Fold:
Amino acid sequence: MRTYADDNFGVWDGMNEPEMRDFYHKCQRTNVTKVCARCERTVRIQPQYSICNDCADAVERGYDY
Structure:
């Protein structure tokens, strides 16, 4: 099975379902290149996001923003 991952959501689950693959590809088409506001890496994320998935996970675990 292929691994589906990106800077928006990390590793995607449920990719055996065509609807999930379609949603993944839609997200990939609408991503923009940005600099993450937290780690300052250049990432491909949704226009409304300011931080990447790795940083969002860290913030959820309690690390300082």
In short: The beta strands are 5-6, 10-11, 32-35, 42-45.
